Structures
1.
Amino acid sequence: MTTRGQDIASVLKRQIEEFGGETSLTEVGSVVEVGDGIAQIHGLSQVGFGELLSFPSGVVGLALNLEEDAVGAAIMGSDTEVKEGDLVKASGQVAQVPVGDALLGRVVDALGNPVDGKGPIKTESARNIEVVAPNVAIRQAVNTPVQTGIKSIDGMIPVGRGQRELIIGDRFTGKTAIAIDTIINQKGQDLLCIYVAVGQKQSKVAQIQATLEEHGAMEHTVIVAANASDAAPMQYLAPYSGCAIGEEFMASGRDALIIYDDLTKHAWAYRQMSLLLKRPPGREAYPGDVFYLHSRLLERAARLDKDHGGGSLTALPIIETQAGDVSGYIPTNVISITDGQIYLEADLFNSGIRPAVNPGLSVSRVGSSAQTRAVKKVAGRLRLELAQYASLASFAQFGASDLDAVTRGQLERGQRLTELLKQPQYKPNSLGQMVASMYAAVNGYMDDIPVDRVRDFESSLIGFLETSKAEILQSIQDQKDIDDATEKALQEAINSVKKTFS
């Protein structure tokens, strides 16, 4: 067989044309040790902190420990398919999560993959999971309220858009209930919600999803779930992923609310990862940077100024205490980062006061600047009267018969206010309903109503306003204030209900 010169020439010509093809350099290492969701990898000398690594089985890893002769990586999924000797490729990319309106109404995992069985999420946008918090210079003051629909919170511990307000309490004191009621209250409003479940049972997350769907609140909500059965790295990443989704809404000039339920389990997951990565343990075996873990997350909540779109991201982190101990390591860390806390007390919860908000230990550092004028007018005396009631009640139990008329009046007013602030779950109040019932209580219209009938009277009043005097509620809702005409009409409505109430 002879080779013709023209054949050789055509082969050489084709090779010369293809010589300029693109080449890519991929750094490759090998697994030297694997176990408990952590892989030690040798050979990745150029890898960066937080960079994604790909294993042959398709599992993704996250580079966290950059040592002289090895890289410690957290495996984002099951480690059973990762073996010693496996070749690991560096991607050159940090962890990202898909973002945008396509996620509304969906349940995703910590990497943004859908887990609700509703098909793929069609969005082109993605954001880095870890970013630097907005600069102080581009933030503006917090002065617009987040209406939770819960009287005791909106009246005494107001939450503003761009604020970080901690919800803290023991197990089974209604922390998640407050968060879910707040999400439900945003139906038809302009606040988008992200609920991040960290270390929760899968059944609880499914129950929350069903509750939100039942009340029509899933349309404006994204659920990011890293369940108790998921690997610790997924639980570690979930709050940052949820925050990135919320930041996309904030960057587009809209308002978003994110709930971290809860950061105690987030700290546990980080402690587990850190110990397995052989980082030196500190107090309670947490690593030394556990404060930075939460501060860099919560500092990303902000209200941007007009030059940067004017959007906001409000954070409601949840912390679980042990036997009411707010002086624990993680609780004190997060209290020092946030702009106030809503403290839920087990004794109040068990005595039937729900939501079990303790007005003495709860505080909002934004204060009344995050309240509408209508709420400010009616709730200004609410906290003071409840504080006076709490101090008098401890003395009155020793000798109730010896009390003067003024003290007895304060005690009875306090009992009625405490009863009024009780609220069933999944039934948040609108602004008009809240203002009307508080107005009646603080101005003495309920003083002659038996304590056990206060909530019945409130229901009668709201029912009457909704059916016969809807313009009063609408006026309060639209103006966010009570003018003289509205106040007079409200007084007449309250008196009308009192005449027929028995």
2.
Amino acid sequence: MKILVANLGSTSFKYKIFDMPSARILGQGAMDRIGSSEDSLHSFSIGNAGIVNQDCNLPDHASAIEEALNRMVGSGKSLETLDELKAVGFKAVHARNISGVVELDDEIISRMEEFFPLAPAHNPAYVAAIRQFEDDVPTARRVGCFETAFHGNAPLRRQMYAVPYNWYKDYGIMRYGFHGASHCFAAEKVVEFEKRNDLRHVNMHLGGSSSVCAVKDGVSLGASHGLSPQGGLPQNNRIGDLDPFALDIVIRNEGISFSDALDKCASEGGLLGLCGYNDLRDIQKGADNGDNRCQLALDVLATTARDYLGAYIVEMGGIDVISFTGGIGEKSSVVRSMILKELEFLGIVMDAQKNEITSGSGFLHTSTSKARLYVITTDEELVVARQTYNFLQNLVRE
């Protein structure tokens, strides 16, 4: 069964075509800086062939999908025709009262549309992509694997806000948590590495969108994102945690609407708001050149991550494993070092040399460290492919 997995980030698009259940990769690609004034880089491969890198202009996710389809379909490519695809699996983010794995019919799509204000960088792009694939590949089932599902068994006390109780009961206002596919993959990987599943594990998914997740005995205890992907750590251009009364000050002083203030939080905050850049590569370059605001952005990101790390260590009564995933987590030795500095009193000892040379995957701990430190190249697409395949197999059995 051939399944295409579509993974849309706020500024990226990754895709893989799997032959399931073997999980053999028939083709894959990744694009970044979507919507940027700079050219995007499209890295793609067909089967076991080498990776091809190509600069391209990608003003939006629609153009990224068209670029991907052009590269994956045709004679000698991953697919002869799009009709070979049995399903398109989406790493969906948020929908009213929906979690887990579901078929993306009009009802589910409408619930995703209702939550556009909560996930403005993701839901509109996903809904547009779902409809685009419906037009381009009408014979393929469209399956949504929602990011919130991995955190669904967290204790209620970790999911609740201290709001009027009817807000929770009537409107579903609570902490959902996201990046479920990445955190799930990391949780499975560290069990494989450590050859045991009774682990107190914190995974840090750091990228254009970032979150920290506590995993105990393979079960999520919650993640730093809250009701929406806007909360938690500062994102590339999203604010992270913020006292809501700050909005009232901005609205009254700038004469803007509440909706405009939310738009600013979702598009002009985060690392971009702090220093003027939303790509860590540019921020690191600025910090290296003495830009104090770029250094401040790094400091705020690392400090917030450490705050959640400390809270989760207390929650779990200690720490056995810390792992890093996502573009920043995998590639930024600077951010990893800032997060892990001076934690020897917790039994966390990082090898500075290993950290400096590790990019993509590896381990960072010294031989004396009680906690194991891993960098993991997360495979969210594999998680979604398995979920999509299992979902379709269950439909056949029913």
